[in-house]
Design a protein that fits this description.
The protein is α+β, with helices and mostly antiparallel strands. Helix content is about 35%, strand content about 20%. The radius of gyration is 28 Å and the shape is globular.
Length: about 450
């Protein structure tokens, strides 16, 4: 699928702007505050009905206006063009049309296409909470598999009811009232747990390949699911027994403490399969491994005896000068967790690898290669990783990348790309006068309604 045209009306910093994109790589270049991220956000809003940056849709409306609307043209693999329209007005809600027909629900909209986005907030997929990672994974899976979506909804409903009953028992209700909820929870939790396990298994193979391909020094990476249900074999009967054994503790907390709602995803650097544990180079001590001096023709005396390293005090702490150097440090047995020990660049690459892995898996299962929206991904990557990423995007269908610096791309890469330079006509650049407040503006004409 290719996004060929995007129109924004009263969306963020755009009054009424249309931009066209091409297949393959698209590079959107502009200074800060020229609306680069807003373009990607609008395209995502049209295809997903929500923003990746805020839960408050009213923030999307240009200040002083009464509604926001996004119009999108997409082309499928057979070059058929579909028009997608999404409009929002406070007090009127959100309306979505696909091909001129009203869409009844956001689940229906999200099931019609696969699309993937990186914005600065996406780094929280590595750095943030397990709940954020679970939500991301479930949203991706729900767009691919309606049965996964149904299992996630069932678990959320039963979990709320069971937690309410646990709280009631904590406050004196009959513990036997938990029995039916335990049975329902075990059934739906095992179903979702198995589906999530199978999904992560499929993603893990793609993630390992993509992440390693983006590592110029040959590092290897893994995506792993940490799931409590693995200890009971994802079996409903085994889970039911575990719930009964844990009942006193759960009643004491008034919460369900065991199940797929406690799952997490880990991004790890690992050693090569079957190889000795990988190592990370250490940092040399002060004064160690100095370059050899130029050759001296005078005879040299016998080498002096090895002396103890000179010790100095830095803020009262003894520090060895001229002591032994640090050696390579082996990776932990389970791998190096990038959430705890990864650099900002490594965490960024991990998120990009996850999105590319999701795109590949979705293409295999649906036959549709969704577009990638990548906001400012180049700024914290070194040049070697930038070249590897651009090369990989060459086989990833359509990719729209924003940047403040076109020097992140080579002349050859830009020659092959569609270049969009900001600001665009119809946008509100920094310092432009904003529209007047509602009480000072005439009503919008009928042809500029939300939809």
């Amino acid at each position: 699928m290719v996004v060929s045209s995007l129109r924004l009306v009263n969306f963020r910093s755009y009054c009424d702007t249309t931009v066209r994109f091409g297949p393959g790589l698209n590079v959107v270049v502009g200074e800060n505050a020229t609306g680069k991220t807003n373009l990607l956000e609008a395209a995502w809003f049209a295809l997903r009905g929500s923003s990746p940056r805020t839960r408050r849709d009213e923030k999307l409306i240009t200040w002083g206006e009464r509604f926001a609307r996004v119009e999108l043209e997409v082309e499928d693999g057979d070059a058929r063009v579909q028009q997608v329209d999404v409009g929002f007005a406070p007090g009127q809600g959100k309306r979505v049309r696909w091909g001129g027909l009203e869409i009844a629900s956001l689940d229906d909209l999200r099931g019609r296409s696969q699309v993937f986005i990186f914005v600065p907030e996406s780094l929280l997929l590595v750095k943030g909470s397990p709940a954020r990672r679970r939500a991301h994974l479930d949203a991706f899976a729900a767009g691919l598999d309606p049965q996964y979506a149904a299992a996630a909804r069932d678990l959320a409903g039963v979990l709320r009811q069971r937690n309410a009953q646990l709280a009631a028992v904590k406050n004196g209700a009959d513990p036997a009232a938990l029995d039916p909820w335990d049975g329902q929870f075990a059934r739906v939790a095992a179903e979702l747990g198995r589906r999530r396990r199978d999904l992560v298994d499929g993603l893990a193979a793609e993630f390992a390949e993509v992440a390693s391909a983006l590592a110029p020094s040959g590092e290897r990476f893994a995506l792993r699911l940490t799931a409590q249900l693995a200890s009971v074999g994802y079996d409903a009967d085994g889970l039911l027994e575990e719930l009964r054994a844990r009942r006193p503790g759960e009643v004491g907390r008034g919460l369900s403490l065991f199940g797929p709602h406690r799952d997490d995803i880990k991004f790890l650097e690992v050693g090569a399969e079957g190889a000795a544990p990988a190592a990370v180079a250490g940092v040399a001590a002060i004064g160690a491994a100095m370059p050899a001096a130029a050759a001296d023709t005078t005879p040299t005396a016998a080498p002096p005896a090895v002396e103890e390293p000179i010790r100095v005090a830095v803020a009262g702490i003894p520090t060895a000068v001229g002591g032994p150097t640090c050696g390579p440090v082996e990776l932990p047995r389970g791998g190096r967790d990038l959430r705890l020990f990864g650099s900002q660049g490594e965490q960024r690459v991990a998120v990009l690898a996850l999105l590319l892995a999701e795109q590949r898996l979705a293409a295999k299962r649906s036959g549709q290669q969704g577009p990638l929206f990548l906001d400012d991904v180049m700024s914290e990557l070194d040049d070697a990783r930038r070249r590897l990423l651009v090369r990989m995007l060459g086989t990833a269908g359509q990719a729209i990348i924003t940047t403040t610096n076109r020097q992140y791309f080579t002349d050859a890469e830009l020659a092959e790309a569609t270049l969009v330079e900001l600001p665009l006509d119809g946008s509100l650049a920094a310092g432009t006068a904003l529209p007047a407040p509602d009480d000072e503006r005439p009503a919008a004409p009928p042809d500029l309604d939300a939809l």
